[in-house]
């Protein structure tokens, strides 16, 4: 059972992700952050619910929309900011950027710029756990768009076959780039596909962090016990446009749908539950907000004043890694 | 004449061909109502409906497989792959199916299809969104490879590609999409396999294509006085080697510049052909100037040094002209 | 309803395929046929059952194990022999060979050397039918090994989404190369996967030609009516080794299994049914056998005396198709 | 010393490395009980069990993805892809994941993995089973490419590849599997990036690798008297360009022979490098001799003319030596 404190921590984690994305949007507009940036806004309950069910040494594979996963898995916010600003002090020394956040110490095995590209990779760490007799589990995040890549079929079958300690978490946020999911999914429930591979296919309320958390815990137990993979589909909603430069078509954002999902805001939902069930103080969200802003100020300051990667240093490593001297 | 953008030129070419031939259709991710994430296909869905502007799931092998099969059945698909880097997810239908089906069938089949894809580097999108992979497709017998560098060529070459009866990899660079140029209306096309001499010159031949051409032009502007013959290849397969050779026979010097990395790139191939066909005319060694042979790092500072650099082109031209490094 | 005559034709078709493979094995050993040869022996009811439910102008996509499909779809036996012997008079002028039989006039859109490679191609002819408002259906053959390729997921979803007139026929013959299917299928029924894509997933007795035929007819009707794809899994057995050069491991061919399937020989089954239900004469199989041998003698004679492709002719075409003159 | 086959050499290399390091395992289609369809892995399943000799479904992207992820977790996978042609079905994990992960992660990760694959032409298996695609992988920064031509090298290079901390494409040719040679036991390896001078010579440098080398040797045997320096590249990335250049500086002539088609192939790359580094030493134009640039037809008569041909090598050597075609 989660303690009150833990639940408040989850509330805070979701708020951190929410505020992180808001700030990144601002930094992007101001030119401090460049490249392809995909916000996780509205989906916070998935990353936070899932990652809270994991240990630090469990593995996760992330996507192009990976800020939330990184934060929920415990990466240093400073380093994430620095990475997105292309600094030497970034998570990946500025080599990865928004779509390629790696933090091996915290079990973050990378985002991916290729939709569906991370799915087969996740087989590997799960295989390694089984190989070494370790109980570390792997979570593979992907969204409903990726479920239509070939890698989905190949990976889920292999994982099921060998009962790998692997949890497929499909963040069904109803969009892939500009395309609503009803145009790309022949069955609206990705979870349904699990039957064909003899593994459990579970649907979670992706805007309800405790539901995600509980269902993940079950899957994690199953995985640690050697009983094999689970496919968890978290139904959620991509609140923002696909990325900084792609706007949605109005006909794909019906007012009713947008409002319906706004009413299901994952942070609001948890806050309300905490108030009802745990007698949470009314102003705690404001307090948390302040803490977060404080932390962010320092982190952004750190990132902005960090050096860019050193070109000579890079060339030195590159020369030996890629045999450039041949040229 | 009207001045239109590269993007608009692409759009016009497709619409004109769709108008002319009911068998032409577009297919790809976000190409329906949205008109493609680059916007190249705006208005097509509205005008021609969903079957002829088919939005797909994120299933590149499915898209290219479908296109190949549709071509077998007599349609003329124009598929869009958002970034060339994503062709890694559908190499089999491109290389083992589309490129080979006509031969394998003993010429019972034709495979008239175009794979429009967007390539290049320079937008801080890191290593999986920065590749120029034309050499892979040049190395695959059965494919044509087209890389227009400007709106006029984009229109004329795309029309020819759609009319061609074999699979064409049609490469567009996102940094060119907003370029504007005079482009005539009407039924003209630019034949595949004809290079364009951008300007004539006597001292050195420079061969380039696509976005790299701009960097070459920038580089040439650095010289006060230089008589360079600049060739825009336009199509890599078939390659207009005659135009290159003729030029080299005149200038005795050649530099090939492209975004792709140098190792086993198009430049190396051109060096091979020039050496084979014009060795005795050379006053200096043919050189290639390309991207740095590393996966592209995200950070702008690092990406900048990984791209084809104007200064590097300048340096190599200088060396070829003077022998001084 | 099938007439007695039609059923006898089906019997004969299956026998032709059976004898064809036997003869090809012989020709291979004698060096007349080269390359990678995969026999269809034991699976005849699938090709014959399916193709009898189709019109000549319907499309099929075949596999590396394609002789049966070609014969059942009505290709000239002479030309198939000639193709396998690499002759100018072959189906594909000797350019395709065993794994790449194309006969566009008869709707045979090609075998495939890439496992799973034909699946997405089949979307294309099906799409073309819908595009042109034609009622031609497409059948895509593949075996259970191919069902684990990524292309399966991508294609079945797209076909379902757009209700393409496409029938996926999985020939589950319990082996992929040397590997028995229980080592590669997380769920023994491929048909089960159909649920995840909102299409019917049907299991047919792949050794019972009438069962295959009837189930295919239903799927064909569905497809022609614009109601979309069906996945039919035909349970059958690969009687021979994978190809001419790969032998099976004895432990993967338990005596009981082999004998069980021998008792379910598709030709015997149909013969018996015909005898019981249609009063088939006892010696008809022998008669058919003689007819077939006669036909084969002529066909092989034709193939063997056909010229090999002309090199100059080939180079002329190749030069213009592949711009070799550049070199 | 014992004489063992190429196949056995591969097997020994793997078993020795598996013995030495628990993290090494093999994975691929039919590699378990069967020991791989080529038989390279016989006995490994029996000795090391299913986890270390993992049979897989026909899911090449899954296999290479798994291998990459396993390498991220510290294992050292050795994956088998039955024919190089099938790498088309898993280019993404090879090119965008395995090759780039160490850089993308800011060097947090190493990706020690070997993709053993079998390539080549000549067995009447038609266009989807006859390709030599090394150039694609040379063109992809982050991969090493190794192509042993004999049992000794196969063992020594495979051991080095398994010990290497970066992804290696290890290419074996089915026509070499039964070749027999003296191969020592023990812990030696052949460093990646060192070419072998098969024999020294003064008149011409011939560079080759893998199965093509045999055809070069056949071609040289056609000459009564010739002093050719024959270089077996052994690894294409990293390439031992120094050995090539040194040789060319001595002979002034070079021919590169490979199975792959010439356009954008490894040969073109070597020409580029030789031109860049030894232009002034050349007495004749560097030439490439490769396969015909077409998808391989099935019929033996046609396949034979599509392969790298001994006569073509002879012709080009003759031309380089005499100037007469
Ligand atoms: C193989 C591939 N195809 C296309 C893209 C372009 N792309 C990037 S994100 C995206 C949409 C992804 O949708 P989904 O998987 O649902 O993830 P979400 O953005 O909803 O998190 C697309 C099409 C890509 N990066 N990789
Ligand atoms: C992509 C790919 N991987 C591997 C192979 C090698 N191969 C040829 S047939 C075969 C087995 C196919 O099994 P299945 O799909 O069940 O077909 P079956 O042979 O049973 O008809 C394999 C592994 C191939 N041709 N293509
Ligand atoms: Mg989505
Ligand atoms: Mg099978």
What does this protein structure show overall?
The complex is a heterotetramer, with two copies of chain A (327 residues) and two copies of chain B (325 residues). Chain A has eleven helices and seven strands. Chain A has 327 residues and is of the alpha/beta class. Chain A has one domain: Thiamin diphosphate (ThDP)-binding fold, Pyr/PP domains (Rossmann fold), CATH 3.40.50.970. Chain B has two domains: 3-182, 3-Layer(aba) Sandwich (Rossmann fold), CATH 3.40.50.970; 196-320, Rossmann fold. Chain B is 36% helix and 20% strand. Chain B has 325 residues and is of the alpha/beta class. The mean pLDDT of chain B is 98. The chains are: A alpha/beta (327), B alpha/beta (325). At the B-D interface, helix 4, helix 6 and helix 10 of B face helix 4, helix 6 and helix 10 of D. Residues 143-145, 173, 175-176 of chain A line the site of one magnesium ion (MG).
Which key features would you list for this structure?
heterotetramer, A: 327 residues, alpha/beta, Rossmann fold, two-stranded antiparallel ribbon, 11 helices, 7 strands, B: 325 residues, 2 domains, seven-stranded mixed sheet, binds thiamine diphosphate, binds magnesium ion
